[in-house]
Structure formats: C-alpha cells, structure tokens
Here is the input.
Amino acid sequence: MKISEKEVLHIAKLARLELTDEEVETFAHQMGDILTYMDKLNEVDTTDVEPLSHVHDMVNRLREDKAEPSISREDALKNAPETDGTFFKVPRVIKE
Amino acid sequence: MKYEVVIGLEVHAQLSTNSKIFCTCANRYGEAPNTLTCPVCLGMPGTLPVLNEQAIHFAIKTGLALECSIRRYSRTARKNYFYPDLPKGYQISQYEDPICYNGKLLIETDGKPREIGITRIHIEEDAGKSIHGMGSGTGVDFNRCGVPLIEIVSEPDMRSPAEARAYLAKLKQILKYLNVSDCNMEEGSLRCDANVSLRPMGATTLGTKTEVKNMNSFRAVEKALEYEVARQTTVLDEGGRIEAVTLFWNDATEEAVLMRSKEEAHDYRYFPEPDLVPISVPEAMVETIRGQLPELPAARAERFLKAYGLNEETVRILIAEVEWARYFEDVVKTGVKAKSAATWVTGEVLRVLKEREAGLDDFPVSASRLGELIRYIEAGKISNQAAKKVFETMLTSDQAVAELIEAAGLSQVSDTDFLETIIREVLAAHPEELARYREGKKQLMGFFVGQVMKKSKGRANPKIVNQLLQSALESD
Here is the structure.
C-alpha cells in the first residue's frame, strides 16, 4: 500500500510534528509497509462479524459520585513548562 | 429572493454532579485557579479514567424528559485534537452511539406550537479554561477540565432566530426542572452553538451551513442568528456562494467574525475509547430513572390551570422557573387563596427578584412568612397597600409579621366612628367635587375613596370606606 508524502505531512501536522524531507520519505515507506502488512487481514471473511472495540465483555465499571480532595496547586503546577504560580502558561492562543 | 431559514442548535450543559466525570475532583465553579485538579484530569501518563455513575443517570434523565430513545449499549470515543486547554490531547466524548437519540421538544412562538427534533444527547468531558490577555502568554486553569457535560444536538428544525431562542429557553427550563444542570449562561454552564443555512422557499435540500459560536445569552443567540441570516441573505442576493465557515459572535460590537474556514477544520480521528468499558443500560435502570422524573413544565402548567383556577398568563409566569413554582405552592400551602398567592408571587416577589437580579435561594421572605402576611389581608386586618409596605420591611427584618405590622402602624382601621370623621373632613374640603358628584358625576367616587385612604395614611379598610362614603354622599 502506498502512502503519499502529502498524507505523511497531513498526519505530521495533526500530531504537531515537523519532519525533514528525508523523514517524510522514510515515513511514507514505513507507513506504507505497515498498511500492506495489515492488509493481510482483508483476506479474512468478516461478513457477519461485528467490529470489536473492546477485547473483553466487561461493562459499566462506574464510580459513585463522591468528591475527594484534589492535589495542591503547587503540585499541579510542578510539571508545567511555564507558570506564574497560578496558571499554566502557554504561548498566546489568540491574536489580539 | 425569499429564503427559508434553517437552524440547528448544539447545546452543551454542565451536569450538576458533585465530582468530575472521570476523577474524584470536585465539580465546582468559581474556585481559585488550578485548585481542583488531579493526575487524571491533568492528563498525566499512566492514569486511567473511571466514569461517574451520576453523569450517566443525568444524561438518561434528560433523554427521557426529551422523549428520546435510550441506547442499551453505548460507548465512549476519543476525539483527538491539540489545544492548550485539553491536557490529554483528546477529549473523551461519544461518537457513533450516543446514550440518547431521536427525541423531541415542543416549543411555542407567537402562540404557534412547533415540534423540534432532538438528534442525540451524548456525554463528554469539559476542557479547561484559557485566560487571555495575560501579557506575554495565555494562562490555563484546569478546574473545569473533566467537568461532565451533555451535548444536546437538535435537528435543523428551527425556521427563525426567534424559534432558536424559544427552543433554548424551553430546553433550559426543562434542564432546571430536572435539576441536572444549573444552566447559567454567564458562567458557561449552558453554552450554545448554532448551524445556520438558507435555502430558496420550497426547496427540500439544505443550503451550505455556517457555524456560529460564543453566544452567551438568550438575547445574544437571537441577535447573532439575525445577523448571520442577514449576512447570508446579502451574499446570496448578490449571486455569491456561502462558504462553510465558523463565526465567532462578539456581543460588544454585535458582529460575527470569521474564526476558521471549515476546510482547515480539525480532523478528529475518533476511535472507541480503550480506557473505558462500554456502558450498558438495562431496562430496569431506565424505568427507575423514569420513575424519578419530576413533574415537567407542561404537566405543571396544566395542573396549575386546573387545580388553582389561575389564568394562562399567570401560570406561564409561575412555572417559568422551577423555584418560582415551588415557592408559589409553598405559599398556597399556608392556607391562603391560590389567587392571592399568585398575585403576590408574580407581583411583589418577582419585582424584588428582578431589581436585585437574584434568585429565590437567598430571598429573605420565606413562603410561610409571605403566607402569614397574606392571611392578615384576607382577614381584613391590613389593607393590600399597607401589606406592600410591610412586605418591604420583611425584606430586611426577621421580626414576627404581626410585630412589623404593629410597628409600622399599618394595622387596618375598621373603626366606623374614626372613618366617618375622616369622611366628613374630606367632603368638607372638596365642596366642588361633592356638588358635581350629586349632579350625577358618579365616577368621582374613586376620587373620594382616594382622599379618605390618603388621610388615613392607607390604613382605612377600603370596603368599609366604600360603604360609609356611599351613604354619606347619597344622604346629605
């Protein structure tokens, strides 16, 4: 199966990745190979088989609606790339 | 050319659960930023979501109230996109099999009833909140991240901005009756996006639609949609084509600005959420929840009309807010006439609420105290006018109603000797009016009653004043 460079770039954009021209070419090949391999599955007749979303029959693992204490703000912000002590800071989202 | 307007609404309502949808952080508005978070709602690697049972119940309750079918086997799905307010890089939502589908809601505009189809209701998690204008960057508060939401999607059944507004108002009313959301548009617990398109009158296929976002009040919904309908009409009339874009309503300038064109729109790559098992809703669960449904606005209106003999307009006002209806019935339970209770609630009580821009939760006059005051009127111990003054004092005082009446010197005077003296004085002071009355100008009766009431400082019993005046005017 063939994956075009355009498709690779689209997927890279969705994943917020920047790729060099060589990487685009490499990934186009690799992804194509993966899809070719997966294509083997199409040889199996699945006419009357429901698509599977979960590998077990479990349902309804639910939680009672009870609130517990949260972690402190200090702890919450520990992994923030940037913070002012109150908020997680990120590059400006909208143009002013 | 004459166009038909086609509008569909997507409404998000935050559910009033105690905790968030996938973790045990409290679901509360207005707390200090980033104090209601945990590794789960911050999207830390290795954490797993556990679904809040109440969120499912609330969604089903809403579905039943909107006459939806309830899906017996439903799954959650991942909606993938990057945005700073979404720490996991995906939102857990539902895609192919929403928990409720195929419902309807009856609305009324200009006395014409219309049925609006409900396509689906699904559960999902809210994102965090971005705070813009913080100098160099944007701040993110994750308290809201993981708050349970239901998204209610309508069919494109609305034919005017006014109908869209009516739909939203009706939906809010029902959600409030169900007590599943507090539906505060300003605080963002009820949010609304609209899809708008036009088509030539009589056409059966839909025109290209645009999406309008950020409408934070009923008024804004109507204004924004009127704006967009006018804009599309101009484009089409000039021979142009509508582009599938997203518009952002600016309430201050009353303009919709372009957000992004749909071609660049997100490619969400939905897939079944592997971290959550499917939701199974047995018949018994649906029936239990159905049994817990409260009386809904339409049924309540009918009961109020029949049980209390009130007129339609009064009933419409009383049931508009679930707590107004409850307060009214609590006043009636104190043993006063339903009509007096309705007059006081729709009159004085709502006037004060409006002035204070407040709800009944922190209203200082309890239903039982208002009932007591009305009983004094019904017993003829205080005039209606005087009662209004006492009501004012009750807004700031917890003193016994009887004491407040006494203190204000407003207990009603029915003493005929005292009233006759006042009447004689009034007649003596207005010989001209008296003469005209006797010549047949009977309308002046009202004038005399007014003068007597004024002289008694509103304390005279109007019934007795009428009788006494009548005989005084006719006899001499």
